[in-house]
Write a structure and sequence with these properties.
Blueprint: H1 2-13, H2 22-45, H3 50-79, H4 82-96, H5 100-107, H6 124-152, H7 156-176, H8 181-186, H9 188-203, H10 205-208, H11 213-233, H12 246-260, H13 268-271, H14 274-281, H15 283-301, H16 307-333, H17 336-340, H18 342-363, H19 386-393, H20 400-406, E1 434-436, E2 442-448, H21 450-453, H22 456-466, E3 468-474, E4 486-487, E5 492-493, H23 495-511, E6 515-519, H24 528-540, E7 544-548, H25 558-564, E8 574-575, H26 576-579, H27 583-595, E9 599-601, E10 612-613, E11 616-617, E12 620-621, H28 631-636, H29 638-649
Parallel strand pairs: 2-3, 2-6, 6-7, 7-9
Antiparallel strand pairs: 1-3, 4-5, 8-10, 11-12
């Protein structure tokens, strides 16, 4: 079953097969194996030797983990973007100390994101939960067994306690999924029920072993089918963990429960073979290696990441796992001194963990492997006229000025105006939302999502120069046009956007702006009916309407790309036909805007020429991530925007 679990994980991560639930299978297995060991020791001695228990865990887990954490940092330093290195080693530090899952909760990570934002240490979240379980489980179980024997003279209280943990944890995971998906997915308290199912099964193993063999065989086969079928029914669109992960969990419990009766013709007839035994032995190393290779491989090959590359990652990581198993895992596991003197195992494991954490902490303060310059980027020239965009198309090297600005490029975002986070349900007018000239006679409202917010700084400067009060109304991921948007991190309807939009419309009617500028990200949810509904509201305000077309999409994190292609930045540019995604929806929105009398500002000439959208124009980096333009480049577009806005305002 360990082999089944790891093959499910690798197949899903590498895009070989759309199958989920491998980690959930692994959680149940861990709970059953560890629970079985602990209950057996308690039954035999009446207690648990914490030193021996933790020494066994250290012997198995710490050395391979330390090797992979350090090797991943070395490969990241060599091949990945220098701008990401410090974030990576911070993740490595969290992984070495077994709280990576909580770091991912804190950063609001989308586990299924496919935008280059993944960390090579992200997969340590599940190992962190297991290791937290290993610390607490022996203590809790000893206490519960002692209390249960005092009260019931049996293990009834232990069973009730485990069932309460399962029920409570499952409810928390299910209820938190639509509210805070990262918390539900990565946190210990929403996942511990899966491991506890295995512990409860270990407690009930003596009963399961007395099951009728025919029934046991049927249950084990049905359990294996349940694991595989429910795992394939889960998709990237399924709210996870929710209730969906219950399928693989229940199926695994059924396989093990059936196997306890040793039916001889159950699922073990398929599972118990040398091939799966071999894969199962290397499963820990395969889990450790496959994800860092998958994340870092595109940087290592420096070309488009094809399906064949995913297969190569799966095979190479397995070969490394086999090497790790025989060269490291077996040696530490069978170390005679550690077995005879468990305190040595605990001390050595603690030393390895501390050394790994220390190495990550030191790596975080090492100067970045990044070409720099003393030139100031504050005076750098960006857009001057369409010729500057055309010249940028043929540029291949970064100037000293741009190199000097690279390290701070990810922070080069708008400083003025306001934008509401995803969870905000109502627009509230506040001082931060008023920029430009707050005492201006005329009012301009800039409304949209983060692709409106990215323009705030240049609108601030234009408003100040023209004596215009600029009100910014923006919410992340929320189009001002009435579309049914799917919340990207939670795979559900973005209801917070719907309520925020209604309150923003109500505020618009109170403001009665002279000019209303609408711009948002081109999205696949766009539909004509929703666009027309919004523009009817916009028209009712009596404002002059302006529709700014969306900016081109670079398709990758631009500062990261530039940092790794300083001598030839061509791979960081994008063809115009690729950058202007969802062309049919862009055209539809523009048609609706024109129908309602809006002035159109086509932003494409400020970003693209000769069918190419450059990553650097003049001496300005155009994007600070994989989607949004830098504040400095936006401000350089003042000569492009100001005449159009001046004409509308007059």
């Amino acid at each position: 079953m360990r082999a089944v679990a790891i093959m499910m994980v690798v197949a899903m991560h590498c895009g070989i097969l759309d199958i989920h639930g491998g980690v959930d299978v692994s959680f149940v297995l861990s709970g059953f194996l560890i629970g079985g060991q602990l209950f057996a020791e308690i039954e035999k001695t009446g207690k648990v030797s914490l030193t021996k228990f933790w020494a066994r865990r250290f012997r198995r887990l710490a050395p391979p983990m330390a090797i992979v954490i350090v090797l991943t940092a070395v490969v990241s330093w060599t091949y990945a973007s220098p701008l990401k290195f410090r974030d990576y080693v911070a993740d490595g530090l969290s992984s070495s100390l077994s709280f990576m899952n909580w770091r991912l909760v804190e950063t609001g990570t989308d586990y299924f994101a496919n935008d280059g934002s993944q960390s090579p240490y992200q997969h340590f979240w599940s190992l962190s939960i297991e290791e937290q379980f290993y610390v607490a489980a022996p203590i809790l179980l000893v206490v519960m067994v002692w209390i249960s024997r005092k009260i019931f003279r049996n293990r009834a209280l232990v069973a009730l306690f485990l069932m309460a943990v399962i029920g409570g944890s499952f409810y928390l995971g299910w209820s938190q999924t639509p509210e805070n998906q990262p918390l539900a997915y990565f946190s210990t308290h929403t996942r511990i029920w899966e491991i506890t199912c295995g512990v409860l099964l270990a407690l009930a193993a003596p009963l399961a072993s007395r099951m009728n063999r025919g029934v046991a065989a049927a249950i084990s086969w049905l359990g294996l089918a349940t694991v595989l079928v429910t795992a394939m029914l889960i998709t990237d669109e399924t709210p996870l963990p929710g209730y969906a992960v219950a399928g693989p969990v229940i199926g695994t419990v059924m396989v093990i429960a059936g196997g306890c009766a040793n039916p001889g013709f159950g699922a073990e007839r398929l599972l118990d073979n040398p091939v799966l035994d071999f894969i199962g032995n290397a499963s820990y190393g395969w889990y450790l290696f496959h994800w860092p290779l998958l994340v870092l491989w595109p940087s290592m090959i420096d070309r488009e990441f094809a399906f064949q590359d995913r297969l190569r990652v799966a095979v190479l990581s397995f070969l490394l796992a086999v090497l790790l198993h025989y060269a490291v895992e077996r040696r530490f596991k069978k170390n005679v001194q550690w077995v005879a003197r468990p305190w040595k195992g605990v001390f050595t494991g603690g030393f390895i963990t501390g050394s790994t954490a220390g190495a990550m902490a030191l790596a975080a303060i090492v100067p970045l492997n990044l070409a720099t310059s003393n030139s100031s980027s504050t005076l750098a020239v960006g857009f001057t006229d369409p010729t500057s965009v055309k010249n940028a198309v043929y540029r291949t090297e970064l100037s000293a000025t741009v190199q000097g600005a690279l390290e701070k490029a990810p922070e080069n975002s708008s400083r003025h105006g306001c934008i509401d986070d995803f969870e905000v349900k109502k627009f509230v007018m506040r001082d931060a939302c008023v920029i430009g000239d707050p005492g201006g006679e005329k009012t301009l409202v800039l409304m949209g999502d983060s692709h409106a917010w990215q323009w705030n700084d240049v609108y601030h400067e234009i408003g100040r120069e023209l004596g215009v009060r600029v009100v910014t109304m923006a919410k992340g991921g929320c189009s001002p046009q009435v579309y049914h948007i799917v919340y990207p991190d939670m795979n559900r309807g973005y209801t917070e956007c719907d309520s925020w939009r209604e309150s923003a419309f109500a505020e618009l009617k109170k403001i009665k702006p002279d000019v209303l500028v609408i711009t948002d990200r081109a999205r696949r949810e766009a539909e004509r009916k929703g666009a027309e509904t919004a523009f009817e509201v916009f028209k009712e305000t009596g404002a002059r309407l302006v529709y700014m077309t969306d900016t081109p999409q670079p398709g990758q994190n631009v500062p990261d790309c530039l940092a790794t292609h300083i001598d030839n930045i061509t791979p960081c540019n994008r063809k115009q036909w690729q950058a202007l995604e969802y062309t049919e929806f862009r055209a539809m929105e523009r048609e609706v805007a024109e129908k309602y009398g809006a002035e159109i500002i086509d932003t494409t000439p400020a970003f693209c020429a000769e069918d190419v959208c450059p990553a650097v124009i003049g001496d300005q980096i155009v994007y600070f991530d994989n989607s949004h333009i830098t504040s400095s480049y936006a401000k350089s577009l003042k000569p492009f925007l100001k005449p159009a806005l001046e004409e509308v305002l007059s």
